[in-house]
């Protein structure tokens, strides 16, 4: 009996040119490089240029992933863009990406799970592949998240950045005696009772404006480590692997202390944890594929490695996905 599995064909990313350092931020809001680095582990973040939209970031990351995979847009059947900051209320940023890539076939949609968006999108792509709805899926996490910030609110504006990352998943048939590879298991969770612990106070149906980010930071922190580790264990249990089998842990990049806390609770050596929050800040749905791209490009993540992706964000939503690279 053959098994269809979603394997990773390529990854890519894009960061806007403009870098905003903590010291620069401290000139406009009452904060300091020392406070931000100590509490969150962020040194700098990238900011999209005026007129540069989420779909532009997404297209740049998509092109990099296509190059990495040796594919063209003709080879893609489905585009999923995980984003909280689409160019327009509608159409989906994914259809704009489809247009900008010159793709006239297949289908495209956006997925909204805030910072968990990329893990949700990878899992959704995997289901579409296994159900025969698509063979090659371009999964993108792209955000111009800084456009949701109130730049006078020091409790939120220091935490976020802009960027995009992409991954191409392809359905392959494994022969009976072939070892498992690609996406091995995933687990997704949400709990809407926490919606107002991290949310944006606007939207088309409520205020007719985009709104600004509000967060009960210590409350989010309190939930984060437990929820992250629970979903990682659930994913491992489904796959039959243990923490000791993992080669790489690629968590959502929101806060170095949350990443360290989750790594320590799982019993993972720090050298197996991919951390880019220092240079990217929290780029919401883009954070996991951006971190992945860095670790693939610098040669850490190699074919055959066992890689755990994890994210948690507004909603709350959280999830994990285990991949044999
Ligand atoms: C946001 C976060 C860094 C705040 O750190 P914290 O240690 O919990 O700090 P608190 O919110 O309790 O604030 C402590 C003090 O620092 C101050 N402070 C907050 N932001 C500050 C900043 N940017 N610069 C300087 N001081 C700041 C507060 O006003 C408070 O001052 P006070 O004691 O005089 O009232 C932390 O709660 C966090 O990381 N939470 C999770 C956030 C997250 O990951 N969100 C995304 C999930 S997808």
| Topology order in helix (H) and strand (E) letters | EEHHEHEHEHEHEEEEHEHHHEE
For the largest sheet, list the strands in their spatial order: 1-7-6-4-5
Count of helical segments? 10
Provide the CATH topology of the largest domain: Peroxisomal Thiolase, Chain A, domain 1
CATH superfamily of the largest domain: Thiolase/Chalcone synthase
Overall mean pLDDT stands at: 97
CATH class of the largest domain: Alpha Beta
Low-confidence stretches: none
Largest sheet entry: 5 strands, mixed
- Share of β-strand residues: 25-35%
Ligand names: coenzyme A
Indicate the structural class: alpha/beta
Q: Architecture of the largest domain, according to CATH?
A: 3-Layer(aba) Sandwich
Rg on CA atoms, Å? 19 Å
Using the alpha-carbon principal axes, give the shape. Answer: globular
Specify the helix fraction band.
25-40%
């Amino acid at each position: 009996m053959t098994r269809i599995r979603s394997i990773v064909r390529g990854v890519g990313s894009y960061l806007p040119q403009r870098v905003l350092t903590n010291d620069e931020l401290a000139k406009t809001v009452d904060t300091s490089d020392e406070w931000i680095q100590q509490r969150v582990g962020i040194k700098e973040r990238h900011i999209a240029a005026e007129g540069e939209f989420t779909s532009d970031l997404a297209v740049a990351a998509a092109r990099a992933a296509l190059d990495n995979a040796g594919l063209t847009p003709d080879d893609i059947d489905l585009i999923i863009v995980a984003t909280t900051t689409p160019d327009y209320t509608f159409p989906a940023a994914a259809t704009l990406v489809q247009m900008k890539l010159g793709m006239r076939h297949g289908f495209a949609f956006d997925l909204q799970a805030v910072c968990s968006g990329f893990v949700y999108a990878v899992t959704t792509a995997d289901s579409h592949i296994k159900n025969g709805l698509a063979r090659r899926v371009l999964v993108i996490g792209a955000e111009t998240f800084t456009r949701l910030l109130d730049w006078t609110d020091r409790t939120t504006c220091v935490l976020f950045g802009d960027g995009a990352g992409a991954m191409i998943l392809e359905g392959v048939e494994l022969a009976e005696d072939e070892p498992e590879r690609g996406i091995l298991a995933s687990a997704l969770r949400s709990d809407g009772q926490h919606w107002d612990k991290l949310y944006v106070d606007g939207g088309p149906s409520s205020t007719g404006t985009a709104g600004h980010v509000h967060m009960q930071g210590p409350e989010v922190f309190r939930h984060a480590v437990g929820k992250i580790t629970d979903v990682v264990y659930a994913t491992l249990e489904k796959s039959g692997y243990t923490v000791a089998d993992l080669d790489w842990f690629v968590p959502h990049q929101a806060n170095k202390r949350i990443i360290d806390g989750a790594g320590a609770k799982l019993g993972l050596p720090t050298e197996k944890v991919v951390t880019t929050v220092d240079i990217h800040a929290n780029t919401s749905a883009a954070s996991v594929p951006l971190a992945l791209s860095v670790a693939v490009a610098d040669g850490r993540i190699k074919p055959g490695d066992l890689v755990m992706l994890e994210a948690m964000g507004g909603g709350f939503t959280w999830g994990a996905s285990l991949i044999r690279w």
